[in-house]
Amino acid sequence: xxxxxxxxxxxxxxxxxxxxxxxxxxxxxxxxxTRDSNPSIAGDLINGLRGFCMGAADTVPGVSGGTxxxxxxxxxxxxxxxxxxxxxxxxxxxxxxxxxxxxYIDFRFLAALGIGIATGIVSLAGVMHWLLDHKQxxxxxxxxxxxxxxxxxxxxxxxxxxxxxxxxxGLGIGAAVAxxxxxxxxxxxxxxxxxxxxxxxxxxxxxxxxxxxxxxxxFGVYHPVTGLIKDAVRGNFTLESLSQIGVFxxxxxxxxxxxxxxLHWFLEHHRSTTMAALIGLMxxxxxxxxxxxxxxxxxxxxxxxxxxxxxxxxxxxxxSLLMLVGLAVAAVVAVIVVESIANKVDSNDPA
Length: 351
Fold this sequence. Notes:
- With 351 residues, this protein is an all-alpha fold.
- It has helices at residues 18-29, 31-34, 41-58, 65-71, 75-83, 87-94, 98-104, 107-134, 136-154, 163-181, 191-206, 212-219, 222-233, 239-269, 271-285, 321-348, and strands at 293-295, 309-311.
- A two-stranded antiparallel sheet has the order 1-2.
- The relative contact order is 0.14.
- Mean pLDDT is 79; it is low at 1-37.
- Residues 1-20 are annotated as: Disordered.
- Pfam families: VCA0040-like (PF04018).
């Protein structure tokens, strides 16, 4: 039997089965993404910073942490790691081969990224909330520039642009536009609907260009779910509310594991077409961050998450257009610099 050159396969007194050999071959095929043969503190810090940027992005309605992962170069590594929570991983855990299990799912990468995401959300949620309430055009200008630069960078991940890639990109644009134009749901809190909402929303969080929080808003469960979580943290909960939170978490886990494996398969077998579709999602969602929009008179005094926005022609904009352009340009430059640094770090990280 062919011996796969992998830390798991080279464990003493172990002969992999056919299914395990296939999984180990997958590890080898993605070695350039996992890079777990010689992890370093510097790599952990970089991955923590990547996670911090993802968490910061997830605090802004309409912005996806998946977009940040795509730009910073760890998107496929993230999808691959999540997709490996499978039967082989479970068998390693049952056999108490925890080190092999950790390497198989790239645990060190996931841990550093997860800590960064949590830190970004906790530390910047309040700041972003204030900015969206008081400096929404300026905040949108920054993220508009970030997304534009991201699209320009990610297009290089498509090795060839032919008819299939063009169609995939067009479908991605259409899907993103359709999602942003859907009416808000009624807020059904039944357990099956909560499970469905969570499953779809967590899939959206993996995809660039679509915000998981926005999908929850479309289903009408964003505010009820966040309210349940806040009450539970304060100690105000009932058996019904705990069951709703539990079903929501189960839906997130199901959607994350199922969709990540599907997305990983597409990235492995149809990479250019899949990347083109992801670019389309980013293009279709960028209009939601157009800085020249203001709340309708009826909703102007509400919090940002409750406002209904309307576009304003450039000639009628009451603020400084030059400032908005400057912020967008600065964001573009920042993305290019960060992407360049990420590439240098990856090139210096041993494969």
